[in-house]
Design a protein that fits this description.
2 strands; two-stranded antiparallel ribbon; mainly alpha; 12 helices
């Protein structure tokens, strides 16, 4: 028996399947509902007061980080990304979107590499054995400094991202869903920190940021394939490879590993380690909503693949983008322009000047 326990600790438990996940979650949710100690507004308020551990310095650091990311993005955009797009002589529509992707690629790459370091080069084994994220959990337990740094970086970035989606990023067909995603993500980050569920948070961040790296890298190659009045086949090839890699990794990380490692742990393993764990339903509902949004965006990926296979699309493009006419009308509306006729003449002028 001891040998088997040692072996499991060395290699980790076997990966559950989807059926085991669904059946286990249903049983755990039903049992948790019957044994719930914080159900109801009055009980929830009391449990919230007893389990929230946050101080003024945490709040100030989060606010400072949010402002810092916004200022840093504006600085890099004006001093680095925009000059680079002008120097490379990108097409106007690509030059307008390039700084956003460059900024996100820089952040997600740095953040994801830090989670790789935490999960695979330190004492933490939450990827190999996700259930260990709740071993020894205690209310108000100290958050290790290396994990607290990650939470500060991620929390302040997603607070900044809510502002950026509304006022800095290009508006897309899924921008409202993206805004909801940022709100849910920030809520998960803040509450998992104050409730001391930070261990599982590392795994959530690791499984999501890698896809954002591939997405922004692919988009940058799309923007750079037409520059200086010349078509660059290498960037087109890299964007095609990146698109395939992104599609596969999205399914693998967000729709395979995320439910079976994270949802299984928060829904089933957490109750086994900590019976009546506080706000069990709250976190699992938010994580399930995150899973549904991952499925929603995966539909865009499937739609893209179908368009490529059926010949409806010859080159990689972002299906979430609105067409040129819509963007021009939106831009003119913001500037108080006289709208459709002016927008139509502007578009005709752009089309006439577009190089063959």
């Amino acid at each position: 028996m001891d040998d088997e326990r040692i072996r499991l600790q060395a290699v980790g438990p076997a990966m559950p399947g989807y059926l085991e996940l669904l059946h286990g979650c249903y049983s755990s949710l039903l049992r948790a509902f019957h044994e719930c100690e914080d159900c109801g507004l009055e009980k929830s308020a009391r449990v919230l007061q007893d389990n929230v551990y946050v101080n003024r310095h945490d709040v100030l650091l989060l606010a400072a980080g949010t402002l810092g990311w916004t200022l840093l993005r504006r600085l890099l955009t004006s001093r680095l990304f925009q000059p680079l797009s002008h120097w490379c002589d990108l097409q106007p529509k690509d030059a307008a979107k390039m700084p956003e992707s460059a900024w996100k690629l820089l952040f997600y790459t740095t953040s994801w590499l830090y989670t790789v370091y935490l999960l695979f080069f330190t004492k933490y084994s939450f990827f190999q054995e996700p259930a260990s994220a709740f071993y020894g959990w205690k209310r108000g337990m100290e958050v290790p400094m290396d994990i607290a740094i990650l939470y500060l970086i991620q929390g302040s970035f997603y607070a900044h991202s809510i502002y950026a989606t509304l006022y800095m990023d290009a508006w897309r067909k899924d921008s409202l869903v993206m805004l909801l995603h940022h709100v849910i993500t920030l809520t998960l980050i803040v509450f998992s920190y104050v409730f001391r569920y930070h261990n599982i948070g590392i795994l959530v961040i690791f499984l999501h940021d890698v896809n954002d790296i591939q997405l922004e890298f692919t988009k940058l190659n799309v923007y750079f394939k037409n520059r200086g009045g010349t078509y660059h086949a290498l960037n087109n090839f890299v964007s095609n490879v990146g698109c395939v890699s992104f599609s596969i990794s999205w399914f693998w990380f967000r729709l395979y590993w995320f439910p079976l490692k994270v949802l299984y742990t928060t829904c089933i393993s957490s109750l086994q380690s900590v019976p009546n764990i506080p706000f069990y339903f709250f976190f699992n509902i938010l994580l399930s909503a995150l899973t549904l949004m991952n499925l929603y965006w995966f539909l865009y990926i499937v739609l893209f693949v179908i368009k490529v296979l059926t010949g409806q699309m010859k080159e990689v493009n972002d299906l979430r983008e609105y067409d040129v006419e819509y963007q021009e009308r939106k831009s003119l509306h913001k500037k108080g322009g006289d709208s459709w006729k002016e927008g139509k003449h502007l578009r005709n002028g752009i089309v006439k000047q577009k190089p063959l």
